[in-house]
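Whiteboard transcription, Tuesday session. T.W. wrote the structure tokens on the left side:
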């Protein structure tokens, strides 16, 4: 814009006058140098047609794509600017993903391991016991049987226990049962001996056990060690023999003593190398609520772009743990319920993760509630028939947390969203420098500025927009403010689609008009404001939602100029004016296709003494101070060129001041056609200015 106005004014108002002065000066000097006459006083007069100058605005102004264009059949000069991203509002500016609370850490104390099925059998033949006791008589037939008193009777191995290798009991009792399958009454003192030679508990005393009867004794094993292989050591064996005369007993060699070891009171393990039976540590539902500090928040559907649940298990058992997880209201991208099974081995601390990326969760649990992640899992340890060394009771802690959670889509109600400011930003139109160059009134009469808003949020908003043009002074007189209250921004109807809203600045305003703003002219335009969002219900927000605000500026060069003045100072060489010249008349015949009237005065200036020596007024034939008359413009914008003849006469006094000056101050005044009416006139690139230039001069010549 600055380039358009300044190019027209400077070229027409100054450049042409300067070139004309140069032309006549060169003409006079050349003629004087070539003149050879006798020494006499003469006053020759002569005239010369210098030539014709013709140009169009398009010769001065270069069309630039998308910013300065020649529009339509008349090539109307139009300033354009388009910015797609004047302001952009993303999801992060409006809505923050609610913090997903940890599922929570839970510590479980596994019940003390109990050996409930401790059972081992031992069947010892009477013949083996008698042999070990030192009896050497017959053991079959009807035979006399003597008494035996308190003699050791051998070691006998029980069946091996398969549920452990070695165990130390914290508490408990087991029963040793003895069945006497012989015809003799016997007394037995037995001890249980481990494979390493240590004993389990106290000796067991079976006293006077009658033939074909069973007796039971208990053993307290608190603090006792027991290996999976134990030996029954008969420390003492006694029998009164066959009894009174004839003191005989009938034996067939199959007679035996039957011993059974079994649990009688819970056998609680302190430490062990044992098999761990399949044990459920937890079978529960864990709910992580996802509220923000916002009572109106009511999320019903949540689709995650990324996210995971980290399960960290700290187990005191060097045994595998299996966690089966199910999120019954969470679906994968394929629509399958999210499930997974994790195996944690060898105890200690380990972490496994469940990937939540591209999953969609119904946070209402089928309508029962809202804002809820529903996570169900069960954990089990043991049951694999392997031996593990551990201390009891052992603890297992399970900690589950959400991590790297980023949403792709949210549906529901977001509750209260606080209004937020649109930071003020300044757009430089590139025409602000005109305010320092020109005085008077400049009005661009048909500007168009519109904001374009693309909204891909599933809810609308209200936009309070401030648009203010300013000059350097930035006082009330240097600003024009446009205020657009409560402009509605429409809501998108589907994910990935934009709702388009257009906000024209031409007519909507409470404080100024767009013409007033452009007429400053502004150094820049400040945009700012605020966005308020009503309490949105049943809306959606995607991870890519945004509000994109652009601006389109279209300013056709339809201008009203009223007494717009500017000046320029040029250096002047006084010696370039021949003393012999006492009068010059510049004759201009113009055909002006520009709807622009130009007036010009020249101040002859002595910059050393800071004195204006003389003002040369340029007037037309009617005595008006007009250098060029404006082309007429009718109501339809059609231009009729103005044809004019102008005679600019420089007299003796003008030449005397020019011979003393060192500078010329050229003062131009611009008025568009019918400037008083404040109607704008169009400028088009094809407008022409044609000037025929002639010069007439008179000089005093002395010859010898």
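and on the right, the sequence the group agreed on:
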């Amino acid at each position: 814009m600055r380039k358009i106005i300044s190019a027209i004014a400077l070229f027409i108002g100054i450049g042409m006058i300067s070139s004309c002065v140069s032309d006549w000066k060169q003409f006079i000097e050349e003629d004087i140098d070539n003149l050879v006459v006798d020494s006499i006083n003469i006053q020759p007069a002569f005239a010369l047609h210098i030539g014709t100058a013709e140009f169009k605005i398009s010769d001065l102004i270069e069309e630039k794509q998308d910013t300065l264009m020649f529009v339509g059949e008349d090539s109307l000069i139009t300033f354009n600017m388009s910015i797609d991203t004047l302001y952009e509002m993303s999801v992060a500016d409006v809505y923050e993903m609610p913090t997903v609370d940890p599922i929570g850490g839970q510590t479980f104390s596994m019940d003390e391991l109990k050996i409930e099925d401790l059972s081992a059998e031992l069947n010892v033949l009477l013949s083996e016991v008698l042999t070990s006791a030192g009896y050497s008589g017959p053991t079959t037939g009807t035979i006399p049987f003597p008494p035996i008193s308190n003699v050791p009777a051998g070691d006998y191995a029980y069946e091996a226990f398969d549920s452990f290798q070695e165990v130390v009991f914290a508490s408990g009792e087991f029963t040793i049962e003895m069945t006497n399958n012989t015809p003799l009454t016997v007394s037995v003192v037995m001890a249980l001996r481990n494979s390493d030679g240590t004993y389990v508990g106290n000796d067991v005393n079976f006293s006077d056990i009658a033939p074909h009867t069973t007796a039971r004794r208990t053993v307290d094993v608190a603090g006792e060690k027991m290996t999976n292989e134990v030996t029954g050591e008969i420390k003492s064996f006694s029998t009164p023999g066959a009894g009174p005369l004839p003191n005989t007993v009938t034996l067939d060699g199959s007679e035996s003593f039957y011993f059974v070891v079994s649990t009688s009171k819970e056998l609680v393990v302190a430490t062990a190398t044992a098999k761990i039976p399949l044990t459920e540590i937890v079978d529960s539902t864990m709910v992580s609520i996802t509220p923000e500090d916002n009572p109106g928040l009511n999320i019903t559907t949540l689709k995650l772009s990324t996210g995971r649940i980290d399960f960290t298990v700290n187990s005191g058992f060097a045994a595998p743990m299996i966690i089966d997880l199910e999120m019954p209201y969470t679906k994968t991208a394929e629509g399958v319920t999210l499930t997974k099974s994790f195996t944690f081995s060898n105890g200690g601390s380990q972490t496994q993760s469940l990937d939540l990326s591209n999953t969609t969760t119904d946070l209402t649990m089928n309508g029962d509630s809202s804002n809820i992640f529903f996570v169900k899992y069960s954990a089990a340890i043991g049951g694999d028939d392997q031996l593990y060394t551990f201390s009891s009771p052992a603890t297992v802690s399970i900690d589950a947390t959400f991590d790297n959670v980023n949403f792709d889509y949210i549906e529901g109600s977001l509750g209260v969203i606080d209004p937020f400011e649109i930071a003020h930003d300044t757009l430089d139109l590139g025409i602000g420098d005109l305010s320092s160059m020109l005085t008077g009134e400049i009005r661009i009469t048909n500007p168009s500025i519109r904001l374009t808003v693309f909204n891909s949020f599933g809810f609308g908003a209200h936009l309070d927009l401030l648009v203010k043009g300013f000059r350097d002074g930035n006082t009330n007189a240097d600003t024009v403010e446009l205020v657009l209250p409560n402009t509605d921004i429409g809501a998108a109807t589907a994910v990935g689609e934009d709702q388009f809203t257009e906000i024209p600045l031409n007519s909507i305003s409470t404080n100024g008009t767009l013409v007033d703003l452009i007429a400053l002219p502004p150094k820049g335009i400040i945009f700012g404001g605020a966005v308020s969002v009503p309490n949105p219900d049943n809306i959606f927000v995607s991870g890519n939602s945004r509000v994109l605000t652009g601006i389109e500026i279209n300013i056709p060069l339809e201008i009203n100029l009223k007494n717009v003045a500017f000046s320029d100072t040029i250096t002047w060489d006084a010696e370039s004016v021949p003393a012999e010249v006492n009068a010059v008349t510049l004759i201009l015949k113009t055909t002006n296709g520009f709807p622009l009237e130009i007036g010009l005065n020249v101040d002859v200036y002595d910059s050393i003494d800071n004195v204006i020596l003389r003002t040369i007024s340029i007037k037309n034939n009617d005595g008006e101070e007009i250098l060029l008359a404006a082309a007429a413009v009718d109501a339809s914008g059609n231009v009729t060129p103005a044809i004019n003849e102008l005679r600019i006469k420089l007299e003796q006094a003008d030449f005397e001041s020019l011979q003393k000056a060192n500078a010329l101050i050229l003062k131009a005044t611009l008025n568009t056609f019918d400037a008083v009416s404040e109607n704008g006139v169009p400028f088009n690139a094809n407008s022409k200015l044609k000037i025929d230039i002639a010069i007439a001069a008179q000089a005093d010549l002395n010859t010898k």
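Someone added at the bottom: Helices lie at 2-34, 57-60, 91-94, 126-132, 434-437, 514-518, 652-658.
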